[in-house]
Amino acid sequence: MFEIKTPRRVCTLDITPRVSQAVENIGLTEGAAMVYVPHTTAAVTINEGADFDVQRDILTTISKLIPRGGDYSHLEGNADAHIKSTLVGVSVLVPVSRGSLILGTWQKVFFCEFDGPRARKFYVIGLPGLVKEQ
Ligand code: ZN
């Protein structure tokens, strides 16, 4: 289990180095790493990490689609964060080969906060056994 402190209500944080380190630590060489977020108002996604504006555009657009002050019934006042978590998803699966994450040139793994700032957690689960083309 990994702990992560999120600095704002809505943000994404690059957790790729921590996922890579986890894969190395468990000695996984061929297979996949599942990253799982055990929260109802946070998520995890894979997208571009080279141009930070991409993350800003994603968060701005998600917030336009699902405004904080929408017509919601949930009394806690964070219904938008629950909806964003469900749409983005709480897990990703990253293939691993030769001990390294298989990510595209611009891809990074991002922890997505939708109701911070908070102390959060995520898990990295190593799944051995990558099927190779025969
Ligand atoms: Zn709630």
Write the layout of secondary structure elements.
Elements: E1 2-5, E2 11-14, H1 16-26, E3 31-36, E4 42-48, H2 52-65, H3 79-88, E5 91-97, E6 100-101, E7 107-113, E8 119-128
Antiparallel strand pairs: 1-8, 2-7, 3-5, 3-8, 4-7, 5-6
Bound molecules: zinc ion.
The site of zinc ion (ZN) has 4 residues, from loops.
Relevant CATH superfamily:
YjbQ-like
The major pleated sheet works out as:
5 strands, antiparallel
Beta-strand residue percentage: 35-45%
- At CATH level 3, the topology is Jelly Rolls
Q: Which value, in Å, is the CA radius of gyration?
A: 16 Å
Q: Uncertain segments of ≥5 residues (pLDDT<50)?
A: none
Order of adjacent strands in the largest pleated sheet: 1-8-3-5-6
Count of individual beta strands: 8
The average pLDDT score comes to: 95
Which series of helices and strands comes N to C? EEHEEHHEEEE
How far apart, in Å, are the first and last alpha carbons? 35 Å
Ligand kinds: zinc ion
The CATH class is identified as Mainly Beta
Helix content: 25-40%
Quick structural summary:
With 134 residues, the protein is α+β, with helices and mostly antiparallel strands. The protein is built from three helices and eight strands, in the order E-E-H-E-E-H-H-E-E-E-E. The chain has helices at residues 16-26, 52-65, 79-88, and strands spanning 2-5, 11-14, 31-36, 42-48, 91-97, 100-101, 107-113, 119-128.
Please, could you describe this protein's structure?
With 134 residues, the protein is of the alpha+beta class. The protein has one domain (2-128): YjbQ-like (Jelly Rolls), CATH 2.60.120. It is built from three helices and eight strands; from the N terminus they run ββαββααββββ. The strands form two sheets. A five-stranded antiparallel beta sheet has the order 1-8-3-5-6, with helices on one face. Strand 5 (91-97) and strand 6 form a beta hairpin. 26% of the residues are buried. The mean pLDDT is 95. The structure holds zinc ion. Zinc ion binds at residues 74, 76, 78, 82.
